[in-house]
Amino acid sequence: MYVSKSDKKREPPPAPETLPAAIVDAHTHLDACGASTATEVREVVDRAEAAGVGRVVTVADDIASAQWTVEASTWDDRVFAAVALHPTRTKDFDDSDRETLEQLVRHPRVVAVGETGLDYYWDFSPPEPQQEAFRWHIDLAKRSGKPLMIHDRDAHADILRILEEEGAPSTVVFHCFSGDAEFARACVDAGYVLSFAGTATFRNANAQGLRQAAREVPAEQMLVETDAPFLAPHPFRGRPNEPYCVNYTLRDLAELRDVEVEELAVATTATAERTFGLSRADAA
User: Fold this and answer.
1) What mean pLDDT is predicted for residues 79-106?
2) Which of 122, 198, 224, 244 has a Cα-to-Cα distance from 234 of 20 to 30 A?
3) What is the rounded CA–CA span in Å between residue 261 and residue 143?
4) Per-residue pLDDT band at 8 (split at 50, 70, 90)
């Protein structure tokens, strides 16, 4: 049967060989992956677990998504939540939104405030309300004692400036890290954790600085993620992404760093445990 190139691009990547040690998808969007019910969430994380991805952090995009992620985290012990208002949606951020997030962040299965930060690529929200909302989320992370999960797109300098001005929370995660090795060193020196998505596996010229960053970051400050349903890793770029695909990213990064897959799996899982307090959330 003939399969066109366009049809091929719509196919999800094949199921990979199970990893030798379980890992954590540190950032995904289960609702955007098409899961809306407990059964659908279980099916997604079952596919992930079969690939060796034992736990996932599902992340909010807007207020409705924040409410859903918290509920979804109660449906399956392998699912944890992060809540915030995405920077591209901050133009109309109001007191009602703040009150809702204040309540949601207290839930024991919410393990991060995110994703928040700055996005200067899209023009859905001007820089000023983005920066104001980012400062508010920094304060929320500090008051709640939960990690700050940062979205940073074309905004490196302002992100670091605002973190310094406000005083960074004790734990800061740069989700889908997008900087080069120099920026990574600045983040590592500040004690921040860098999470690498499928973009770190890309082979185009623009990805070389990012791949150098992924090669150098200490394993104790490194996470892996999908950002699913976006950013499927090489060689499946452009296809639908799902938490099981972080298996491919982990394998690619292990090769890049010249370490065994199991070694990097164990190291990034330890970083995820320490960063998000997953065992504490499970016990709550």
Assistant:
1) 97
2) 122
3) 37
4) low
Q: Using an 8 Å Cβ cutoff, are 185 and 175 in contact?
A: no
88: Cβ contacts below 8 Å, ≥ 6 apart: 119, 122, 124, 125, 130
Quick one: average pLDDT of 12-18?
Answer: 97
Neighbouring C-beta atoms of residue 194, cutoff 10 Å: 25
**Residue 279: how many other CB atoms lie within 10 Å:** 10
Q: How many CA atoms within 13 Å lie on the side-chain side of 162?
A: 23
Query: Hey, what are 4's tokens?
Result: 């066109």
Q: What is the rounded distance in angstroms from the CA atom of residue 249 to the CA atom of residue 208?
A: 15
Tokens of 62: 């807007």
Nearest alpha-carbon partner for 249 in 16, 32, 72, 33: 16
**How open is the CA angle 116-66-281, to the nearest 5 degrees?**
90
Supply 44's token pair.
């997604």
pLDDT tens-digit series, residues 57-70: 999 999 999 999 99
Separation CA 105–CA 211 (nearest Å): 33
Cα diameter, the chain? 60
